Amino acid sequence: MSVALHLGGDARLAVFRVACRPSARAPSARQYATQTSLGTTAAGFRPRRESVTVFNDDGRVKWGELTTSEKVARTAQSSFYSTLIGGGLVGSILVFTLLYTDVFSSDSSITQYNHAVDRLRSHPESLALLGGPAKKISALGDPTGTSWIRNRPRASMETDKFGTERMRMNVRVSGEEKTGTLHLLMMRRQDEKHWHYGHLFLDVPGQSRVWLEKGEEQAKKKTPGKFFGVRWG
Question: What is the distance, to the nearest Å, from the Cα of residue 92 to the centroid of all Cα atoms in its chain?
Fold first, then answer.
């Protein structure tokens, strides 16, 4: 703080500087007590957490901090997820197995169907009868209610008393001129791993039957019988 005094006209200017410093006061007991009590309360305060349920458990709360009901909820959630993952794994294996058995396996009906159609498209007599080049020959399954099923071949399976399996399939084929039916019979004995032709032929209404594979079934029909040890026919 500066104080200036003027003493008369020619009097010298006397300047007195007085330094005033505020006195430091010790904090009151009330203030100290208040601050201390607030600090203690803040340090010991814990916000109340949300109860853990099956639907909101994210694993953040440690197992030892869970109540009994919350532990039951976490266990149920873990069991559900484990069952879901296991079911998905089993389902994936089943789908893969079905795809391999019905589509990709060399012994599946789809594979036999594709081989039969390829034989037809490479058979000159069949192409001449249906009309058109091989790429113009279409092949469909039996007529059904939906186009998705109609476009798939349907194979009938049977096993005789000797353990020989037979796969039969009728495929509708069309060319630029005519439409017919491709009849397929595949056979597999009990001691065999792969299928072989029983017969494969094309029928077109009003036309003679065209044989692509006469196979074992036709060979049996043409084998002459024996009478008193003598083969006739």
Answer: 6
**Nearest partner of 180 among 125, 109, 111, judged by Cα:** 125
Any idea which residue has 């796969």 for tokens? 167
> If we measure between CA atoms, which residue out of 200, 122, 216, 119 comes closest to residue 165?
216
Helix and strand element counts for the chain (H, E) = 6, 10
Q: Over the stretch 119-138, which tens digit does the pLDDT of each residue have?
A: 999 999 999 999 989 999 99
CA–CA distance, 13 with 5 (Å, rounded to integer): 6
pTM: 0.55
Q: What are phi and psi of 117, to 5 degrees?
A: -65, -40
Q: Name the burial class of residue 59, with classes exposed (0-12), middle (13-18) and buried (19+) by CB atoms within 10 angstroms of its CB.
A: exposed
Kindly report, residue by residue over 77-122, the tens digit of the pLDDT: 999 989 999 999 899 888 877 776 666 677 788 889 999 999 999 9
Query: Which tokens is 164 given?
Result: 């020989």
Determine the Cα–Cα distance for residues 222 and 233; give it in Å rounded to an integer. Answer: 9
Tokens linked to 5: 């005094």
Contacts of 37 (CB under 8 A, 6+ apart): none
